[in-house]
Amino acid sequence: MLSPKQIFFILAFSILVLIGSQINFSPILGAENQAFTLFQFFGPTAGAFLGPLIGAASVLLAELVSFAALGKEVSIVNLFRLAPMLFAAAYFGSKGVRQRSFAAIPLLAMVAFWLHPVGQQAWFYALYWLFPIAATLKPGLISKSVGATFTAHAVGSVAFLYTVPTAPALWIGLIPIVAMERGLFSLGIAASYVALNTVMARLELPIFEIDKRYVLSKKLLLG
Prior knowledge:
Radius of gyration: 17 Å
Shape: globular
Structural class: mainly alpha
Largest sheet: 2 strands, antiparallel
Strand content: under 5%
Mean pLDDT: 82
Order of helices and strands: HEEHHHHHHHHHHH
């Protein structure tokens, strides 16, 4: 059973997702009228506060609310776009052995990418997904942020590859763009987590999993 504080967090998070989903960050090349939004900068953090399963469920709920509120078209591309952040939230919220088990997701994505005729001609694109695998070996805020955003990237890329006609040139051209976007998303996820973690600590909400290492204080800011 969810506690009132957890329900409040999910509702507040849904409002943030609704707002963030309306602020475009960069267009998705190859997909008409599709864009990455501010949501990519904080979406995975729900997993850290609610745990991987409830966190992923809260992300799905928030995405469905945003989907309905914004009147998005029900299409294969739009429906598949709901999935990447679920895996990212679960990855970001997992720990220990469970987190290492998430290395299977980008690994399977690499195999699926290489099995596709187009993916075979741009096989090196999928090497990006070694990042979330490597990140499970050295846990930390930055490594988890990198792992989360590239897990989302792996799931989203494979879904896109199998549902939208593309050419190898598109994937090859995306390589430098992915580096920039995912680097910014990683920093955004880490910064969002520190900010939300600090707010939760200040409000003294022990029901959430707060990491005291990432609570901002005057001592931390002033060194």
